[in-house]
Amino acid sequence: MIKDGWYCCPHCGKKLFKVGTDPHAKNCYFKCKGCKKVIALNFEQ
Ligand SMILES: [Zn+2]
Asked: Which pTM value belongs to this model?
């Protein structure tokens, strides 16, 4: 989920990284530092 320009973990709400800093980061996976869950990133609008 995106909140205040940050991509946040949908499970615990922890801010992960700023949206738009890496336009290539889509359709990849990111492990949350907060809850350790793996999140599927998808920035395609
Ligand atoms: Zn999390």
From this structure: 0.66
